[in-house]
Structure formats: C-alpha cells, structure tokens
Amino acid sequence: MKAATGELNLTLITVVAIGALLALFTAVLWPAIKKRITNSSKEISDVKISMNYEDVEFTKYVETELF
C-alpha cells in the first residue's frame, strides 16, 4: 500500500508541475510571443511594393535554333 501511495504522490507532483509550467507559459511567455508575431506581420504588411511600367526596361528575346 505504501508503494501505491508513493506512486500517487509522484503522479500528483508531476501533474501539478506540468500545470504550473503551462500556466507560466500561458500567462507570461505566450503574450510576448504573440506580440512579436503581430509586430513582425505589421512590419511586413507596411512594406508597399509598387512598380511602374516606365521604370521597367523590357528586352526583346529572339528565338534561335541551336542546331
């Protein structure tokens, strides 16, 4: 019976430790990660790519026979 009680205690300690780590991650780490992801996506969306056809030099390709 003592062995079963000891295993139950270790299981309970493990479950509580995992719960504490998940609570820490959810409360402290996840908001910081989410903020960085949001900021980086805003920076990417702020970059505007514009192209004018006057700025592009078109070249004419000529097909040639190689044999």
Could you name the key traits of this structure?
single chain, mainly alpha, 1 helix
Distance between the termini: 90 Å
Mean pLDDT: 76
* Helix and strand pattern: H
Helix content: 55-70%
If you compute it from the alpha carbons, what radius of gyration comes out, rounded to the nearest whole angstrom?
30 Å
Written account of the structure:
- The protein has 67 residues and is mostly helical.
- It has one domain.
- It has one helix spanning 2-46.
- The radius of gyration is 30 Å and the shape is elongated.
In short:
With 67 residues, the chain is mostly helical.
Secondary-structure blueprint:
Blueprint: H1 2-46
